[in-house]
Write a structure and sequence with these properties.
Structural class of chain A: alpha/beta
Order of helices and strands of chain A: HEHHEHEHHHEHHHEEHHHHHH
Distance between the termini of chain A: 50 Å
Oligomer: heterodimer
Radius of gyration of chain A: 21 Å
Number of helices of chain B: 12
Order of helices and strands of chain B: EHEHEHHEHEEHEHEHEHHEEHH
Largest interface: A-B, 33 and 24 residues
Number of strands of chain B: 11
């Protein structure tokens, strides 16, 4: 009885979002997962508008059923969760949204292992208003802490083009790979206007994180339809995608997804009514043209997808034409490019994170001045 | 979903501005797919630099293109894989629904004419052009009137002129959202009996129609006034008229520049008028109109101005999309069939009378 009463303040604190549940760690004897997939939520998994105060208010009062996932994202998350892989969600949404967001993920049948939200109530109570918008001083330590607790041998990260996800993810990847010194990290944290204690915590975590080139791939969902060229400087490991079929294609080439799983992502996109087969075929052409997928891989996928379709991956789908017809339209899209060789994405050069952070700040201020968000 | 084929290599500012316009259109039109035809390597380098939807813009490789100053027939013969030829082919094969080009007008028209079929009842295609007028029209308060034909063919019979009237009216209804566009024949007098025989004959036929809002003949001076929403004439006359109107506009601008240099009082007058001139420029900005349609084929073709920038190309794509969404070609074919049916009935009743 006393134990229950003594835990009450903690439970109330968690309920109102003041306290966060402790980050999960490996249980004794538990094996490390093969792969960790880290996802952002807003504009990456969920179609969220927060470019204006009205959008922000609407997003805050939406129920779980009102919230919309991007076509294909749910099927992709479900596919990634298989084989004992780990799904970690790190979102900039406030902790008060936990219940509704968790309910949305449950509605979609998405299972996850870790769910970190931003404690903005704590920031407000402590008068740390700069931290309300700050992304790097919040997300980077959250990801580092998660990795220290459970360091999977490989990681794939999913973010969007609305905030600084590309910078944070590359910084995280380089940091855990030992490619960014603590001194440089300190400079980046200063440039991102991190509070002193947050910066110290981040530096402490960076010291403790076991070094490994674990991040194999990063996806940036082009929610704002930003020009993909803007992400070239981050190198071939970071792939900007217009939709989750494109992410599935790249993951197929990376041997992370099977042809059957790619089909499931495609089917979810078709079922959304926002994509037709032609859009999916054009999406294939787009990733090939941008040098993000080899033609041979696309052709191999159509062969393996044919096998998957024969073994029942499309059973009951009377709304679709015969698979051979679908495969031919995909092959035709590849042929339409003629003998053109796709532009290769140059290997990543050491990134100047301080400059990137400064540019991102400037870009964000410019957008705010223009009233865009 | 409407598939709009864009000749990415045609135009003074191609491919950059054309690709940019098409990319922007891919964001503005949710149920359209844009097919860019041109050098895939060049287009593949340009597209990622622009905001667009990668699931809605695709590239179809064409290794050559027709220059703006090339002779159409010779260029198409020498370059069978020119972007405009490949683009017209795609539409002819049913892989696209409409075509947009800012390239060589003659080559574009010829490429379509050689590959596409005319609508039932249409004997000749017509190239239409828009011209800013004093009076406005339609729900959009459109400051442009439509003139056709402006050069798809040289001469026209009375039946051709009637066909042009039907096509122009259908286009104005859809694009200017003008429920009953005023259709007029261009002649050398407003009286029914004025003009060459084909104009007199067309006048007689158009007066009988109930499908069109035919207001009779107009003279050249009525064009800039905007007396008619659709001005019908032969390709030869239309082309001469259009070039003359353009020449007059350019001369007025040159005179204004001259006045600006010559006297302080004139300069002050122009400065006082500058906001009005800017407003006029905004109202009569051809770039917002997108382009000129080639009417009469089973597919819409929008010929954007050779100097088109991204905005003009985007608007041309939007016009093509609107033409598809509003079933422009179907509407033209239906009206042509109705006119044909009436003509046959009239011929039948006439022979009955003669027989009796």
């Amino acid at each position: 009885m006393f134990r229950r009463i003594s835990k009450l303040p903690v439970r109330i604190g968690e309920r109102i979002g003041l306290f966060e549940p402790a980050a999960p760690t490996l249980a004794p004897g538990e094996k490390l997962p093969k792969h960790t997939f880290r996802w952002d939520l807003d504009k990456t998994y969920l179609r969220t508008e927060f470019d204006s105060l009205k959008d922000l208010a609407k997003s805050a009062i939406e129920t779980a059923a009102d919230k919309q996932a991007y076509p294909g994202a749910t099927a992709l998350l479900r596919a990634l969760r298989q084989d004992g892989n780990r799904i970690c969600i790190v979102s900039g949404s406030p902790t008060q949204m936990r219940q509704v967001l968790a309910a949305k993920l449950a509605l979609d049948g998405v299972e996850y292992d870790e769910f970190v939200l931003k404690n903005n109530l704590k920031n407000i109570l402590r008068g740390r208003f700069r931290a309300l918008r700050a992304q790097i001083p919040y997300k980077l330590p959250a990801m580092l802490q998660s990795r220290i607790n459970i360091p999977a041998p490989s990681e794939t990260l999913f973010g969007d083009d609305a905030e600084a996800d590309a910078i944070i993810y590359c910084l995280y990847a380089d940091l855990i790979a030992g490619a960014v010194s603590l001194h440089d990290l300190e400079r980046v944290l200063t440039a991102s206007r991190a509070y002193e204690d947050d910066a110290q915590r981040c530096l402490d975590l960076a010291r403790r994180v076991p070094p490994a080139s674990a991040v194999t791939r990063m996806f940036i969902h082009l929610d704002r339809r930003s020009p993909p060229m803007g992400f070239r400087r981050f190198g071939p490991r970071l792939v900007p995608v217009f939709n989750y079929f494109q992410a599935a294609l790249v993951l197929y080439e990376d041997n992370v997804l099977t042809a059957r799983q790619v089909i499931f992502v495609a089917l979810e996109m078709l079922d959304s009514g926002q994509y037709a087969l032609g859009h999916l075929a054009t999406s294939v052409q787009d990733v090939i043209r941008r040098g993000r997928m080899a033609r041979e891989s696309a052709l191999r996928l159509t062969e393996e997808a044919a096998d998957a379709a024969q073994s029942g991956a499309l059973s009951g789908r009377t709304d679709l034409p015969p698979f051979e017809q679908i495969a031919e339209s995909f092959r035709e899209r590849v042929r339409e490019l003629g003998g053109t060789v796709a532009a290769e994405v140059a290997p990543v050069e050491p990134l100047d994170y301080v400059r990137l952070v400064d540019e991102e700040h400037e870009h964000r201020h410019r957008r705010r001045r223009q009233g865009i968000g | 979903m409407h598939r709009i084929v864009v000749d990415a290599m045609g135009g003074d500012h191609a491919p950059d501005e054309v690709v940019r316009g098409a990319a922007e259109a891919s964001l503005a039109l949710s149920n359209a797919e844009i097919i860019l035809v041109g050098d895939a390597a060049v287009l593949g380098r340009l597209l990622p630099r622009m905001r667009h939807d990668g699931a809605r813009v695709r590239v179809h490789h064409a290794p050559a293109f027709v220059e703006m100053d090339e002779k159409p027939a010779e260029a198409l013969a020498a370059k069978p894989e020119a972007s405009i030829a490949v683009a017209a082919d795609l539409v002819a094969r049913g892989e696209g629904d409409a075509l947009v080009s800012a390239g060589n007008t003659g080559a574009s028209v010829l490429a379509c004419a050689r590959r596409w079929t005319l609508l039932t009842g249409v004997r000749r295609a017509a190239l239409a052009a828009v011209y800013p007028t004093e009076l406005r029209r339609g729900e959009k308060d459109d400051p442009f009137s439509l003139i056709l034909d402006v050069g798809a063919t040289i001469d026209a019979t009375a039946d051709d002129l009637v066909g042009f009237a039907v096509m122009g009216s259908a286009y104005a209804k859809l694009i200017s959202q003008n429920r009953r566009p005023r259709v007029a024949l261009l002649s050398n007098g407003t009286e029914a009996g004025k003009g060459p025989p084909e104009v007199i004959e067309a006048h007689a036929a158009l007066v009988e129609t109930t499908e069109l809002n035919f207001i009779g003949n107009i003279e050249g001076l009525d064009i800039p006034r905007g007396v008619a929403d659709v001005v019908v004439t032969s390709g030869f006359v239309g082309n001469v008229v259009l070039k003359m109107l353009e020449g007059v506009s350019e001369t007025v601008v040159r005179l204004a520049r001259y006045a600006h240099k010559e006297r302080l009082a004139w300069r002050l007058g122009l400065v006082a008028l500058s906001s009005a001139i800017d407003q006029l420029k905004e109202v009569t900005d051809w770039q917002q109109y997108g382009g000129a349609p080639l009417l009469g084929f089973t597919h819409p073709f929008i010929k954007a101005h050779g100097r088109s920038n991204a905005r003009a190309v985007q608007n041309a794509v939007k016009v093509a999309h609107k033409a598809l969404a509003g079933n422009l070609c179907g509407n033209i074919a239906r009206t042509m069939a109705e006119l044909d049916e009436r003509a046959q009935r009239r011929a039948g009743s006439h022979s009955d009378v003669v027989g009796a």
